Amino acid sequence: MSLQRESLSQEWVGRLVELEFIEVAGEKHALVGWLRGVTERGVYFARAFYCGALDKYMPGETASFYPWGLVAEIRGVRRG
């Protein structure tokens, strides 16, 4: 499921998502992690790491802020 700014609600906080964002150079990148917060200015996102031995995503870093102007798309991810 692809989420846009208008459809992204607080219900998605704590869920595993794929965040596609635009870097300053204009390139798009995607990361998997947990949505930690949604504000009118942007989203807080904590990157996850995939553990092959456990076959699931594990918590990684503390949350970083991504302003809406740099967020290209957010998609839900099934937990591994």
UniProtKB/TrEMBL annotation:
This is Uncharacterized protein. It comes from Rubrobacter xylanophilus (strain DSM 9941 / JCM 11954 / NBRC 16129 / PRD-1). The lineage of its organism: Bacteria, Bacillati, Actinomycetota, Rubrobacteria, Rubrobacterales.
